[in-house]
Design a protein that fits this description.
Blueprint (H helix, E strand, L loop, with lengths): L32 H10 L4 E4 L6 H12 L3 E5 L6 H5 E6 L2 E6 L1 H8 L2 E5 L6 H7 L8 E4 L4 E4 L5 E6 L12 H4 L3 E4 L5 H12 L3 H15 L12 H12 L4 H10 L6 H15 L1
Parallel strand pairs: 1-8, 1-9, 2-5, 5-8
Antiparallel strand pairs: 3-4, 6-7
Helix pairs in contact: 7-8, 7-9, 8-9, 8-11, 9-10, 10-11
Length: about 280
């Protein structure tokens, strides 16, 4: 979640009806990220979210889509994701060859939000397709059907990635990054993270606060014994298990230790840290 700044209008509001009568996913802002996103939407500007895994980027997009009353298409990018997976392809249906739109094309036609999660994981031809949608053209060329779709009103392109995982083979070119407004996310401050975890899990704040303290100590080990710190998502999982009656140590091991490492020596060290925090 973003660095603390001016508190946004959407602070702490849970499950408020959206414009289409749905319920907003809970999201507790730490700054003006909701206002920046709304301003980008109003002006047809694409947004890039940067931050570690599990810090709230995907939840933020879901919250904002509901808040704006827009349909949301989410694509989890991966090594084999090609431009055709986003745009569409010809498929056999009932003995006939028919064109089937991909999620990006549907979003462009319908005026929806298309969210590309971990966009750097996709193949390089994906970013080429995105370029005409991220400048004043706001068009999507479809070579297979000889179409050039103009984005319908309300269309918005949102992408995210984790800069901590970047390497020479997986990074966004400056020419691509500079087509987006960027919002930097990080894990929330302990007080706010306690609010989020308590709200999501139903566990009392006193016990949640101890889990959040443990999460902070685990995150401090990133780059030493751990490749990545524990996410807010995993803290919510642990709190949920505890709220359902699971013993604290077992819940923490299942949700906050085992997902971080397979190394038995490291696990033992992390469990010693759990004992130091919880006694």
């Amino acid at each position: 979640m973003p660095s603390p700044r001016l508190r946004s209008k959407c602070d702490g509001r849970k499950c408020i009806p959206g414009k289409r009568g749905g319920r907003r996913p809970f999201y507790l802002s730490q700054g003006d990220e909701c206002d920046v996103f709304e301003a980008a939407y109003a002006n047809g500007l694409p947004v890039l979210l940067k931050g570690p895994t599990g810090c709230g980027k995907t939840r933020f997009v879901a919250h904002m889509a509901a808040r704006l009353g827009r349909k949301l298409y989410t694509v989890a990018c991966h090594d084999d994701l090609a431009a055709a997976d986003l745009i569409g392809r010809y498929l056999l249906k009932g003995g006939e060859t028919v064109w089937v739109d991909g999620p990006l094309t549907r979003a462009v036609r319908e005026g929806a939000i298309c969210y590309l999660d971990e966009v750097v994981e996709a193949r390089k031809d994906v970013t080429v397709v995105l370029h005409p949608l991220t400048d004043d053209r706001r068009t999507l060329p479809i070579d297979r059907t000889s179409e050039e779709l103009a984005a319908a009103p309300g269309f918005m392109l949102v992408a995210s990635y984790n800069p901590g995982y970047q390497n020479i083979l997986k990074t966004l070119k400056p020419s691509t990054r500079q087509r987006f407004i960027s919002l930097e996310f990080d894990f929330p401050a302990p007080k706010l993270e306690t609010e989020v975890v308590a709200e999501e899990s139903g566990l009392d704040r006193e016990r949640v606060a101890a889990l959040v303290r443990l999460a902070g100590k685990l995150r401090a080990l990133k780059g030493q014994d751990l490749e990545e710190g524990v996410s807010t998502r995993l803290v919510v999982y642990a709190a949920t298990l505890i709220a359902q009656g699971m013993p604290v140590e077992r819940a923490i091991r299942a949700a906050m230790i085992e997902p971080l490492t397979d190394d038995e020596d490291v696990k033992r060290g992390l469990l010693d840290l759990v004992t130091a925090v919880f006694g």
